[in-house]
Write a structure and sequence with these properties.
The protein has helices at about 5-15, 25-45, 50-60, 70-95, 100-125, 135-145, 155-175, 195-220, 225-230, 240-265, 270-290, 295-310, 315-355. It is mainly alpha-helical. α2 (about 25-45) packs antiparallel against α11, α5 packs antiparallel against α8 and α11 (about 270-290) packs antiparallel against α12.
Length: about 375
């Protein structure tokens, strides 16, 4: 069947080719600046242990790229509020975990992260936020909750909220830097979603996250939330073929990104050097995130791991090994969820055709 080889060639081309270039450097610089300013303040004040609160608040800047300025403002306010709530929830879970056994804490974080993934995915779909899915909110809840408490809950809330607010302001200033759309009207999302569709979105993300997290936890690896993130990463891509591709890209890109990370951590570094690398990786990740996902992971992977090292240092070998293995676990789970949904829909379509009434004339 000639169609199958053609699809394989197209998929392979998407793995290695770059999409069309836009003014990527402008939003990339804006997003990197939203991370560089607060991280620099943490260095000056001697509070680098708060780096994760800063980092997740600064993810606000990633939302609403290439959209009209007023729309970007409104949507980034929503995204910033979501991320701030997720950081606060993570800090609350970290505090509660101090009075729990390790196993109970792990399961609590896993289930809370899965519920957050489902809820945020449904909200993002309903509001039309871009990027879609729930990677950043899940990452915020699970990473903060899995680390030892670094600050009081109110401090985590204020730090994340302040960084999110900074990114919203930078989003407005991006208009004068060239990230604007003259003549573009501000429109709400044209799609409308039923409760059943939103419920299905919740179910896909929550189930994929829970299964991957449980497998990651059962494996004994130290960061099961990485498996959760890898499981939901493919689900926001448009169409099931691209969702499967996204899962494969996640594995390939993460493996290559581990090489980048291993190089950067192969020699002793000071906190200020880690901050520099984190900001550079953020800039490069945003330069390529919309052009080639697997290539962007060359920078996304070290960005995530260096943030962990900055806030809560880990043994480097175990850190890199866990990232690869847990990403593979999660990506396989995500692909399995996509495949199962496709098979279910196919059976439903065949069943509906079989149950359709046959006209008297045989038509």
């Amino acid at each position: 069947m000639p169609a199958a080889p053609a699809r394989i060639r197209t998929s392979a081309k998407r793995l290695f080719s770059l999409g069309p270039r836009r003014v990527d450097h402008i939003p990339a610089l804006r997003i990197a600046l939203g991370l560089a300013i607060p991280l620099s303040l943490l260095l000056v004040t001697g509070h680098v242990q708060w780096a994760m609160f800063v980092g997740f608040g600064a993810f606000t800047g990633i939302y609403s790229r290439y959209e009209p300025t007023r729309m970007r403002f409104r949507r980034q306010v929503i995204a910033g509020a979501l991320l701030t709530v997720c950081v606060t929830l993570g800090a609350t879970l970290a505090q509660l975990g101090e009075s729990m056994s390790d196993l109970a804490e792990s399961w609590t974080v896993l289930m809370a992260g899965s519920i957050v993934a489902g809820l945020v995915a449904a909200v993002v779909l309903r509001l039309g936020l871009k990027p879609g899915g729930a990677i950043f909110p899940l990452f915020a809840v699970a990473a903060v909750a899995s680390a030892p408490p670094a600050a009081p809950i109110w401090a985590a809330f204020l730090i994340a909220g302040a960084c999110a607010s900074l990114c919203v302001v930078l989003g407005l200033l991006g208009h004068w830097a060239g990230e604007r759309h003259p003549g573009a009207g501000v429109r709400t999302a044209t799609e409308t979603w039923s409760r059943a569709q939103l419920g299905a979105e919740f179910g896909r993300f929550a189930v994929a996250s829970a299964i991957a997290g449980a497998l990651g936890l059962a494996s004994g690896l130290p960061f099961p939330y990485w498996a959760q993130i890898a499981a939901i990463a493919p689900l926001s891509a448009p169409g099931r073929t691209l969702q499967v591709e996204r899962g494969l890209h996640r594995i390939v890109g993460t493996a290559l990104g581990i090489v980048t990370t291993a190089f950067l951590l192969s020699f002793p570094v000071q906190p200020w050097q880690l901050v520099v690398w984190v900001v550079v990786m953020q800039f490069l990740a945003e330069m390529y995130a919309m052009r080639n996902y697997s290539f962007a992971l060359l920078f996304i992977t070290p960005l995530a791991l260096l943030m962990v090292q900055l806030a809560h240092p880990q043994p480097i070998g175990a850190l890199l090994e866990a990232r690869v293995l847990e990403t593979a676990i999660g990506a396989v789970v995500g692909i399995a969820v996509v495949t199962a949904a496709a098979l279910r829909d196919r059976r439903a379509a065949l069943g509906s055709r079989a149950d359709a009434p046959v006209r008297a004339d045989g038509g």
